[in-house]
């Protein structure tokens, strides 16, 4: 059998099995050594094939797709530093539990470590971040090796997409010639059964009656509990958690990335806990007897501080054995499908102090009234409120890290729209924010990207995708000419030397010229009503547009702090009148 025939059938069977196992989206960064994979994916004609010339951008573009679809997306690149540029997206996928299948082409073994061009050590090059790494054998079309190719294709999909989701990495060594021959017979499969691998799995996990009884015995003597719902990827979990809270009469601290703040209208939902708990004295007065946490730790730092400062009985719910407990405080763990666990817990007959719930509700309503106050000037917080007021139903909000996600946490409230909020909170980096948003828009849905100027510039190359594909994205660019989040941190408050150089990082790039470079409609707004009109214009047009909101860093800090102080003073006055309950 010739080399070309072995190459064609080996890769063809691998590609077919990926499709049979559920993969539909392939993101390719062009290169020579990856020719067998790239041509095979294109020739198969059942995949959505996307091309991004920048591997770092491609990695986050695929990440965005996988976030939105909750299905594994394949990445393909050539050998050498091309593969290295996937690393930031792989880290984010691992930390935020997003299924990616990374296929890196490589030189054959005899060309490694001998000074051959574009040859680097690609074996386990992503360290421990992938759930599974495997170096594929050299192409071979024997029946045994074709089944080997299928088995590993299926294993890659099942490993990436199973609980806990994450990236996998397969490294393909290829010898030249690299061009497959698709005129051959049996390129994709060998018989009518397609030689495919299939899986049959139970859809539900259940806690035993013994475990449920132990939990009931543990909690029934307690009075004040909190349910925390942090970032997660379970679309049905939010309602299950809110149902649990209603059954038990407990407040839910719902992170903006938890899907609890959309179309819920639940009185148990507390959105403004970040503003309420900023003061250490308040956290001491509002100490719960126990906490049940679903998902990762919330964005809001005061929740972490609440757990760090006090010994609170914690029960952490997760899919499998993990230790998502950055407080390093004692906790117990409950494993299973989180939505199923929540539903089972709701069957327990447990009731708690109703005054505790009504106090949280009262404080939440007051905080929201302060945070929702109207103003003529356009602040960074009001930029969030503006988006929520006019964003189309059943679209997507994707949020950059640093200040944008914190402002969404503070100013994005429960509402009647089905608008899920996403962010790259696995590693909390500013890498690839633009590309991730473009990946989420690849589904055909309208995406609003809220991003700061430094994050935008860091991943601006993702805008190249707007020249290739019909994507509907409204980019709201908060431009405070630098790293605005540092203005809230001790680096700014202590007037340390070289603050502007090292942390403020001022930049003077004309964003209108950036928009012109990519042929994007552009508007620059400084007042609230014109801002709403700019959003309206964007949402009623196709394609990608850029809305720049220019703000002043110090004015933004003062505006936020004034609201937090008002909420803090009111909260302390309310709790002072209830010292017999909370002390």
Automatic annotation (TrEMBL):
<dbReference type="InterPro" id="IPR012001">
    <property type="entry name" value="Thiamin_PyroP_enz_TPP-bd_dom"/>
</dbReference>
<comment type="subunit">
    <text>Homodimer.</text>
</comment>
<comment type="function">
    <text>Catalyzes the thiamine diphosphate-dependent decarboxylation of 2-oxoglutarate and the subsequent addition of the resulting succinic semialdehyde-thiamine pyrophosphate anion to isochorismate to yield 2-succinyl-5-enolpyruvyl-6-hydroxy-3-cyclohexene-1-carboxylate (SEPHCHC).</text>
</comment>
<keyword id="KW-0474">Menaquinone biosynthesis</keyword>
<feature type="domain" description="Thiamine pyrophosphate enzyme N-terminal TPP-binding">
    <location>
        <begin position="13"/>
        <end position="125"/>
    </location>
</feature>
<feature type="domain" description="Menaquinone biosynthesis protein MenD middle">
    <location>
        <begin position="201"/>
        <end position="399"/>
    </location>
</feature>
<dbReference type="Pfam" id="PF02775">
    <property type="entry name" value="TPP_enzyme_C"/>
</dbReference>
<keyword id="KW-0464">Manganese</keyword>
<dbReference type="InterPro" id="IPR011766">
    <property type="entry name" value="TPP_enzyme_TPP-bd"/>
</dbReference>
<comment type="pathway">
    <text>Quinol/quinone metabolism; menaquinone biosynthesis.</text>
</comment>
<dbReference type="InterPro" id="IPR029035">
    <property type="entry name" value="DHS-like_NAD/FAD-binding_dom"/>
</dbReference>
<comment type="pathway">
    <text>Quinol/quinone metabolism; 1,4-dihydroxy-2-naphthoate biosynthesis; 1,4-dihydroxy-2-naphthoate from chorismate: step 2/7.</text>
</comment>
<dbReference type="InterPro" id="IPR029061">
    <property type="entry name" value="THDP-binding"/>
</dbReference>
<dbReference type="InterPro" id="IPR004433">
    <property type="entry name" value="MenaQ_synth_MenD"/>
</dbReference>
<keyword id="KW-0479">Metal-binding</keyword>
<keyword id="KW-0460">Magnesium</keyword>
<feature type="domain" description="Thiamine pyrophosphate enzyme TPP-binding">
    <location>
        <begin position="434"/>
        <end position="549"/>
    </location>
</feature>
<dbReference type="Pfam" id="PF02776">
    <property type="entry name" value="TPP_enzyme_N"/>
</dbReference>
<dbReference type="InterPro" id="IPR032264">
    <property type="entry name" value="MenD_middle"/>
</dbReference>
<keyword id="KW-0786">Thiamine pyrophosphate</keyword>
<protein>
    <recommendedName>
        <fullName>2-succinyl-5-enolpyruvyl-6-hydroxy-3-cyclohexene-1-carboxylate synthase</fullName>
        <ecNumber>2.2.1.9</ecNumber>
    </recommendedName>
</protein>
<keyword id="KW-0808">Transferase</keyword>
<dbReference type="Pfam" id="PF16582">
    <property type="entry name" value="TPP_enzyme_M_2"/>
</dbReference>
<dbReference type="GO" id="GO:0070204">
    <property type="term" value="F:2-succinyl-5-enolpyruvyl-6-hydroxy-3-cyclohexene-1-carboxylic-acid synthase activity"/>
</dbReference>
<comment type="similarity">
    <text>Belongs to the TPP enzyme family. MenD subfamily.</text>
</comment>
């Amino acid at each position: 059998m010739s080399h070309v025939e072995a190459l064609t059938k080996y890769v063809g069977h691998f590609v077919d099995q990926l499709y049979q196992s559920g993969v539909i989206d392939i993101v390719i960064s062009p290169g020579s050594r990856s020719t067998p994979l790239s041509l095979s994916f294109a020739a198969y004609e059942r995949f959505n094939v996307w091309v991004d010339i920048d591997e770092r951008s491609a990695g986050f573009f695929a990440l965005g797709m996988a976030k939105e679809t909750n299905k594994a997306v394949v990445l393909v690149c050539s050998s050498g530093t091309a593969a290295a540029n996937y690393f930031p997206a792989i880290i984010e996928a691992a930390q935020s539990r997003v299924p990616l299948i990374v296929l890196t082409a490589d030189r054959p073994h005899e060309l490694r470590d001998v000074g051959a061009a574009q040859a680097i050590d690609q074996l386990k090059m992503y360290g421990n971040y992938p759930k599974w790494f495997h170096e594929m054998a050299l192409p071979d079309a024997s029946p045994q090796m074709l089944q080997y190719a299928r088995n590993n294709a299926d294993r890659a999909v099942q490993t990436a997409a199973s609980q806990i989701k994450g990236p996998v990495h397969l490294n393909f060594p290829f010898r030249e010639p690299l061009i497959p021959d698709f005129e051959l017979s049996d390129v994709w499969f060998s018989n009518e059964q397609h030689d495919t691998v299939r899986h049959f799995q139970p859809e539900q996990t259940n806690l035993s009656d013994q475990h449920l009884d132990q939990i009931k015995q543990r909690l029934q003597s307690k009075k004040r509990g909190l349910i925390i719902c942090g970032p997660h990827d379970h679309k049905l979990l939010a309602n299950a958690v809110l149902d649990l809270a209603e059954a038990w009469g407990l407040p839910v601290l719902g992170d903006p990335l938890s899907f609890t703040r959309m179309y819920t209208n639940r009185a148990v939902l507390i959105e403004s806990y970040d503003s309420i708990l900023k003061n250490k004295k308040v956290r001491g007065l509002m100490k719960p007897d126990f906490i049940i946490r679903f998902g990762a730790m919330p964005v809001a730092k005061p929740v972490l501080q609440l757990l760090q400062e006090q010994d609170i009985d914690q029960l952490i719910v997760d899919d499998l054995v993990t230790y998502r407990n950055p407080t390093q405080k004692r906790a117990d763990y409950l494993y299973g499908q989180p939505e199923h666990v929540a539903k089972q817990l709701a069957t327990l007959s447990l009731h708690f102090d109703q005054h505790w719930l009504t106090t949280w509700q009262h404080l939440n309503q007051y905080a929201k009234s302060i945070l929702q106050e109207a103003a003529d000037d356009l602040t960074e917080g009001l930029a969030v409120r503006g988006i929520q007021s006019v964003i189309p139903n059943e679209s997507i909000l994707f949020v950059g890290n640093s200040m944008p996600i914190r402002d969404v946490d503070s100013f994005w409230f429960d509402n009647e729209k089905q608008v899920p909020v996403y962010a790259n909170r696995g590693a909390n980096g500013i890498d690839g924010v633009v590309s991730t948003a473009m990946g989420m828009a690849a589904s055909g849905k309208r995406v609003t990207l809220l991003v700061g100027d430094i994050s935008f510039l860091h991943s601006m190359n993702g805008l190249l995708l707007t020249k290739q594909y019909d994507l509907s994205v409204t980019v709201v660019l908060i431009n405070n000419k630098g790293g605005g989040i540092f203005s809230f941190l001790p680096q700014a408050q202590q007037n340390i030397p070289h603050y502007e150089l090292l942390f403020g990082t001022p930049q003077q790039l004309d964003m209108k010229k950036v928009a012109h470079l990519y042929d994007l409609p552009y508007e620059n707004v400084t007042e609230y009503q014109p801002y709403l009109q700019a959003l309206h214009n964007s949402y009623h047009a196709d394609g990608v547009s850029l809305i720049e909101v220019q703000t002043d860093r110090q004015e933004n800090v003062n505006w936020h702090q004034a609201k937090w102080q008002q909420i803090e003073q009111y909260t302390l006055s309310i709790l002072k009148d209830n010292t017999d309950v909370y002390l």
